[in-house]
Design a protein that fits this description.
CATH architecture: 3-Layer(aba) Sandwich
Order of helices and strands: HEHEHEEHEHHEHHHE
Oligomer: single chain
CATH class: Alpha Beta
Number of domains: 1
CATH superfamily: Vaccinia Virus protein VP39
Largest sheet: 7 strands, mixed
Number of strands: 7
Radius of gyration: 19 Å
Shape: globular
Distance between the termini: 46 Å
Mean pLDDT: 93
Amino acid sequence: MHPGEEDLFDRGDYSFWSRLFRPASESLVEAAAVSVGDRLLDVAAGDGNTALTAAEVGADVTAVDLSPSQIARGRRRSEGTPVRWVRARGELLPFADGAFDHVLDTFGDNLDAPITELALGEMARVVRPGGVFGFTYWIREGFNRDWVELEHRFLTGAGEGSSLPLLGTKPTAKAAVAPLADHVEITRQTLAITWSSADAFTDALIAQDPYLHNLHRQLSPTGWVAFTDELRGLVHKWNDQAADGLRLEFPYLRVVVKTAASETPA
């Protein structure tokens, strides 16, 4: 963060999301074929889902995040493991070229515009020739699309939709990583979130989500009430559970990139 910049994750409770996102980290680590002794960098590590998953399979893990509060949570979660924590920006990694065998990023904010290409370039730079970098990124569909559009409308007052992210579709994600890749594997995945009820999930989301805490500060009291009412309506709209309970589907892309091996001198 720049001097004077606030730590977004100092409010709310990010563990609300990290508990739900853990399966995506497990899927990415498995798809990247991380194994014992591999040097792995977890970029925009949050409170450590991917770092911990990789450490459990025996990798030598370094975790990077910009948020001091996320790093503090991650250090607590990873106590007793060899995971190292470094505070740094995902688009400006403080590591030498080719320092890691794997570089992974699970739903990191550094993959959003306007720094998407910088972040991808840094991941490719610090992975060794013939190594693997990979990431997960949300697809704008269903509840996720409507939620993003709702926030955009309340923040900007604009009725039209926000622009689609570069990594949010298979064709655009493939085009973004193709110059950095020897081989690319892009797979559509789905996180299914279940809860006791739609209203209970919405209450927990409003109370704990750091992003919503930040939004709350930007809206008027009446604007916040209107926003949360509409958000609750979206949760009910997209609830894929006929009886009691909640089931929401969050589709995302899992992207695994194999980099070219260095040429052997003749």
